[in-house]
Specification:
Layout (H helix, E strand, L loop, with lengths): L6 E7 L3 H15 L10 E7 L6 H8 L6 E5 L6 H11 L4 E4 L11 H9 L5 E8 L6 H18 L11 E4 H5 L11 H7 L3 E7 L13 H21 L9
Parallel strand pairs: 1-2, 1-4, 2-3, 5-7
Antiparallel strand pairs: 4-6, 5-6
Helix pairs in contact: 1-2, 5-8
GO biological process, one term: lipopolysaccharide biosynthetic process
GO cellular component, one term: plasma membrane
Pfam family, one: Glycos_transf_2
Length: 246
């Protein structure tokens, strides 16, 4: 590509070698041939979080057949939030679509998010996927239900599902947010803290068909408690000041 694309699809991965190729082909199938404003002018930025399997080698091989693909590699494992941020920093598009690397998000929903953006007000900077029919285990759905209820009560972000990996947001607005580990789970609240509006959009959700989950209910809960308190503190201490040049 000689010019900057309008959309960058950022996908963080860690030990997902069997999910890489199918998901990349689904992304290209969903976006190639569309009008530029509808997502047809795009790049794919994969961020390998220092995988211990051959995920990186698979990505390097795919670059030969997928011209839209770019690959960023973490020299040390740094976590999903850092992978997303580094992918966004490397991205050239003004708008970013994110997907989880496990294949549970459906790339066919990206045009749906773009269509929502086309009819939204300019102050809406985040379109968050909402998994209305989750395909996870009963225990994971139960844990997420309670976590979402507690988060919503504390942060009042009016978002039914902040853990969904598929999102569409403005690159500049995202990079202006405070960065910390696990911040990707609180994007609606952080965007609203910055003075922007957010919209939740129903999307598909699929079973994981390869690889294993990198999280369990216990480690999610333990880190979630301190994260939630920290985000609540940020919101309480935050102040939005609009500026104009005169």
């Amino acid at each position: 590509m000689t010019t900057s694309p309008q959309l960058s699809v950022v996908v963080p991965v860690f030990n997902e070698r069997d999910n890489v190729a199918p998901l990349i082909h689904e992304i290209t199938a969903a976006l190639r041939g569309r009008a530029p404003a509808d997502g047809g002018d795009f790049e794919i930025v994969y961020v390998d979080d220092h995988s211990r399997d051959d995920t990186l080698a698979v990505l390097q091989q795919l670059k030969a057949e997928v011209p839209e693909l770019r690959v960023v590699h973490h020299v040390t494992q740094s976590g999903q939030s850092t992978a997303i941020r580094n992918g966004v920093k490397a991205a050239r598009g003004a708008w970013i679509a994110t997907l989880d690397g496990d294949g549970q998000n459906d790339p066919a929903d990206i045009p749906k998010l773009i269509a929502e953006r086309a009819q939204a007000a300019p102050e809406v900077k985040l379109f968050a996927g909402w998994r209305v029919n989750r395909q996870d285990s009963g225990s994971k759905r139960w844990a997420s239900k309670w976590a979402n209820a507690i988060r919503s009560r504390m942060l009042r972000d009016d978002t039914p599902d902040t853990g969904c990996g598929i999102k569409l947001f403005e690159r500049e607005a995202f990079l202006d947010l405070p960065h910390f580990n696990h911040m990707h789970r609180y994007l609606p609240a952080l965007m609203q803290r910055a003075g922007w509006k957010t919209v939740s959009v129903p999307v598909h959700h699929r079973h994981r068909t390869a690889g294993v989950s990198k999280y369990n209910n216990l480690n999610r809960a333990l880190v979630g408690i301190s994260d939630l308190r920290g985000v609540a503190w940020l919101i309480k201490r935050g102040k939005v000041t609009r500026v104009e040049e005169v």
